[in-house]
Amino acid sequence: DFIELFVLITLYPFKTLRLLQNENIISDKIFNQALIEDIKNSSFDSFTRYIFGKKIADLDSVERIYSWSEFQVIERSFNFGIRKNNERIKIIACQFYLNYEIYFNAYADDLDYEMLSAPHQVLVNGKYYLQHKEKISYRTGVSLRYKDIFEFQEIKKEINIILLGSYIEQETKNMLENMTYFDNIIFKNHPAVDITKFGKLPKNITVSDENIYTLFENAKLIIGTASGTLVEAVACGVSVIVIASKENLTANPLVKYGQGQIWDIAFEANDIERIFTQLIAYRENNRQKIQTIRKYYKDNFFIPLTDENIRNTFGFYK
Questions:
Q1: What is the CB neighbour count within 10 angstroms for residue 173?
Q2: According to a count of CB atoms within 10 Å of the terminal CB, is the N or C end of the chain lower?
């Protein structure tokens, strides 16, 4: 395997450069530039995953592969290693998470399928994420990570402002710096981020380690960015402010439905006070509409974690 890895890594730049286009039009120049950037960003992991896929393709006992999928390079390489060497094995990609429209890599296209880098089927976390492709089958799976959302009942008291940390460290720092409008905030840090990286927190912020659904029970408003938990909050009927990114495209998991009613986006620090007042006033005067929006997100972004849905998803039958 190490010899094959060495050969692959050595030959890859030269084979890739053969795809360079004659720069007759602007798109040729863009393509060539992207191709060179791709060579610089190639990784050892992607080559090892290709070889791993080849090894599995040689196993006669394997019929189906259920694989966690964000459709990144390592997964494309793995899929290619299998599909190039075995037409019998079916690859089923599991996207049991809350996606973002700006995560372009997560969407498998028919062209990817023709190039043997895409799975045969993609299972998604809810009806909203279904894609209509000719060669790749998209269907709903089961929400393995979101069992609690179907057990949550109602908000008991709307009293707390909750700030959800992002897995993107800089985004969390930006949010912490812009929370001066509120007297008291409960901060729930992202589990993948070391909270000590944020230094001494402002006096108006209290850190909580409670389960998010426990926090939802007494939530007046959730503030966050680049976090699928914002969808969970809306699906539980909690109002949400999304903080726009200052450095990049904003990773907002919410969709247009309910914007200005149960959620909205703040591009500047001074937007937060205005949006807070607007959302609280709307929910006070439109309780039934809030419940309608809540139901929409719950029904379209999640699939109940039941025995029947698990069997239907993975083909486990007695």
A1: 15
A2: C
Please, what's the b/e burial string for 209-244 (b: 16 or more CB within 10 A of its CB; e: otherwise)? eeebeebbbebbbbbbbbbbbbbbbbbbbbbbbbbb
Domains of the chain: total = 3
CATH number, position 173: 3.40.50.2000
Domain identity same for 138 and 236: no
Extract the tokens encoding 278. Answer: 């607007």
Check whether residue 161 and residue 116 sit in a common domain: no
* Banded pLDDT at 317 (limits 50, 70, 90): low
Q: Are residues 257 and 309 in the same domain?
A: no
As beta bridge partners, residue 137 has: 121
Are residue 79 and residue 123 in the same domain, yes or no?
yes
**What is the arrangement of strands in the sheet containing 64-68, beginning at the earlier edge strand?**
64-68, 90-95, 121-124, 137-140
Amino acid at 69: S
pLDDT tens for each residue of 196-235: 888 888 888 999 999 999 999 999 999 998 789 999 999 9
Say whether pTM exceeds 0.85: yes
